[in-house]
Amino acid sequence: MLLGIVGKPSCGKSTFFKASTLAEVDIANYPFTTIKPNHAVGFVKVTDPAKQFGKRSDPRMGFVMDEWRFVPVDIIDVAGLVPGAHKGEGMGSQFLNDLNQADALIHVIDVSGSVNEKGEDVEVGSYDPAKDVAFLENELDYWYLEIMNKGWEKFIRQTMQEKRDLAVGLEKQLSGLRVTENMAQEAFKELSLDPKKPNEWTDEQRLAFARALRLKSKPMMIAANKCDRPGAWDNYERLKKDFPEYFIVPCSAELELALKEANKHELIKYIPGNNRFEVLKEDVPEKQKQGLLFIQKFLDEKGSTGVQEVLNTAVFRLLKYKALYPGGVSKLEDSDGNVIPDCFLMPQDATALDFAYRLHTDFGKNFIKAVSVISKLPVGKDHVLNDGEIVEIMAK
Questions:
Q1: What pLDDT is attached to residue 86?
Q2: pLDDT band for position 206 (50/70/90)?
Q3: In a domain, 254, yes or no
Q4: Is 207 a residue whose pLDDT tops 90?
Q5: For a Cys-Cys bond, which of 50, 312, 319, 377 suits 57, CB 3.0-4.6 Å?
Q6: Cβ-count burial of 286 within 10 angstroms (0-12 exposed, 13-18 middle, 19+ buried)?
């Protein structure tokens, strides 16, 4: 799974990326600090499945903190996009193409309104962050349209002459964008487009079709960043009303990064997403002490910095994935004694057979049955597994 971080310059994208991954990246308050895409690993937060058995997981990948397990996801941060990005403005076409393989997009906006459309500093609250939502939608739609239009006339001519299925052809042509045949079929129906007469589609219809494919293949949510600044929370509340179709999560990447850096240096103990942290050292410099007091006040008022909630929302609500664990009914440990070492993030409709194939092709081909470790009841191959389920696969 790959999450793409997008937004205009200086909105806090790189700070959000570093707060999510602790990767070393350049952070500066001027446009195009990021030129080449940054790629690192972040984590979604789930309840440790071993806790219900009085044990603690030993993840092969990721980690456990108290009762929480952190499961890795890939994250890519591309350079800031400006109006006209799909035409190459600000090297935008290159940065958009870096997002091809992303499963979902997290649009980071400066909800405090302190950066204009070009990424330049302005007075806090003087810029309307709602403009950023519309601008990025427009750029992404035209990006899809331009990719779709490459060789369009030749493509539809061959498709019609050979009487091929347009949806199948589009899946091949747009596979780099993760567009599928089903997505194309759904878009035909939603827009009342005749897939047998694509040569008659108007420019407006092609743009609407490109947008429909973008929404299906690159679902997007909004991270309302810099929400610790004056006036930001009012803007966030307004955006929720103006854009009800989006998941919008308020966050402060700057505060989250400060907490994670302090935790890394053992100044505090902090579990990402929590509303409290524990100071471990008594001789904290006054400046840092005041900074921690400010952060704790923010956590008391808002519940968290929001960064962890953004990642969890992207994976579990936007993409609707679930966490599944392989295990044994009689033994949770693997051959090395590690408790529930693996976790797999899978689509919400994943069945026991899908899970078997995810573990190993031979398990899927030779599937006999699956057993829920929690209920100890057998389930068939078509049984849709529940989020957090621990499953033993039995094969020939």
A1: 58
A2: very high
A3: yes
A4: yes
A5: 50
A6: exposed
pTM for this model (two decimals): 0.91
Residue with tokens 């694509």: 198
Q: What angle do CA 290, 310, 240 make, to 5 degrees?
A: 95
Verify that 95 and 238 share a domain, yes or no.
Answer: yes
Indicate if 358 and 383 belong to the same structural domain: yes
Residue 46 within any structural domain of the chain? no
How many angstroms separate the most distant Cα atoms in the chain? 78
DSSP one-letter code for 41: E
Q: Could you give the CA distance from residue 42 to residue 181 in angstroms, rounded to a whole number?
A: 30
Spatial distance between the Cα atoms of 10 and 25, rounded to a whole number of angstroms: 14
Does 208 fall in a domain? no
Residues 129 and 272 in one domain: yes
Residue with tokens 């052809």: 169
Decide: 27 and 33 in contact? Cβ < 8 Å. Answer: yes
**Contact call for residues 387 and 321 (beta carbons, < 8 A):** no
What is the structure's pLDDT at 31? 45
Judge whether residue 83 has pLDDT over 70. no
SS3 32: coil
Looking at the structure, tell me whether residues 283 and 347 fall in a common domain: no
- Contact criterion met (CB below 8 Å) for 117 and 239: no
* CATH for 298: 3.40.50.300
Pairing label, strands 378-379, 2-6:
unpaired
Q: How many other CB atoms are there within 10 angstroms of residue 26's CB atom? A: 10
Q: Is 356 within the bounds of a domain? A: yes
- Residue positions counted in the chain: 396
In CATH, what number is assigned to the domain containing residue 371?
A: 3.10.20.30
Domain boundary among 314, 345, 364: 314
pLDDT, residue 189, reads 96
